[in-house]
Amino acid sequence: MCSDGQVNVRGRWTERLRGNGSAATVAQALGVAVLGLLFIAVGLVDAWGFPGGVVVDPWWFAIPLAVACGAMLIKRRHPLVALGIGLVAFGVDAYAGGSLGVIVALVDLLYAAALFSGPGIPRRLVAAALAVVLAVTAVTFIVGGSLQDTVIMGVQAFALLGTPLWWGLSVRQQRELADLAAARALDIQRLSELRESDAVRGERTRMASELHDALAGNLSAIAIHSAAALAQQQPDHRDAEALRAIRSASIEALEELRSMIELLRGEGDALIAPARLAEVCDLVTAVRSRGVDVHYTVTPDPPPHLPAAVDHAAYRIVQEALANATRHAIGAAVHVSVEVAVESLSIVVSNSRGASMVDPTLGGLGTTTMRERSEALGGSFAAGWDSNDDWVVRATIPIVSATV
Predict the structure, then answer these.
(1) Helix axes 100-116, 121-144, angle to 10 degrees
(2) Superfamily of the domain at 277-403
(3) pLDDT digit string, tens, across residues 365-395
């Protein structure tokens, strides 16, 4: 992933450099052309001074100069093509003796090739330049035999070919490092934004949980107790209308609270809602994962839609009964039976003494809580030992009264 990022950064800055500076490129080409013509005008030709070279008119050097300066115009978009044209112009110019203007143009084209060419090309150019320098040095020594001339020619060849390539490669590396640093800074900024977003999401989730814990339970309790009070009142009792209004308002407030919690948690987050009887299967699976042998049956399966108060109370009773069985009867099998009839819902949870059995009536509020949940909805509750020496929890919750 890191290497891909580097290639992308190189591509971005290379394209940016190639696409910009058209006016500067034209100005550079014109500057070299004018400078070269001035050199020709003052007689600075025959730069290489090859013995036995051809004799030409000094203004003949303007032709390879014009070709080399024309190649400079395409050095950003096509650096290797421009370098090839420049090398041909330099070869022709050197054959006639050489002019300083073409040498300046070749230096610029070598620098541009190192700076603007694709990845991997500059190092190949450096290797080729070193090979040419060694070849020129060797040929000079073989032909002339003078060590001094050989060293001078080798230094000149290296200065002409190696220096602009080294300079261009150095500038290229610095720009790549700068772009990589900018890309890294951008990645750090994006990471910081993601962390901030996660923190905000976590805070919203925490607020949603606190809203649910602080208000949803109280609103559910109001709905449950008002429904229980309605079940004990006569239909024409003067308080019945007020109780119905209280229950309706509490249920509407609970629905609005759920909408607020959903908005706080955001799309894609799990919604907080009171547990229902349909989720007992997940509860049983979780208890079984801890090594407890649980037998669960529900009639009908799946259970029908129930009033929210009855649905929630049934789940909590089963949950508390399972918790008591696994806590007080270690290793005992637990049987859970839920039956939904037309007018009522029945829950039976039983377990044997197991390897170790503590009296469930001692030291806990589980039985009291289950009793209160059942009786608050007008139902009944009983817990105790049966004739088979099993601990049995029975709860019956009317369905009709909860819908009044």
Answers:
(1) 140
(2) Histidine kinase-like ATPase, C-terminal domain (3.30.565.10)
(3) 678 878 888 888 888 999 888 888 888 999 9
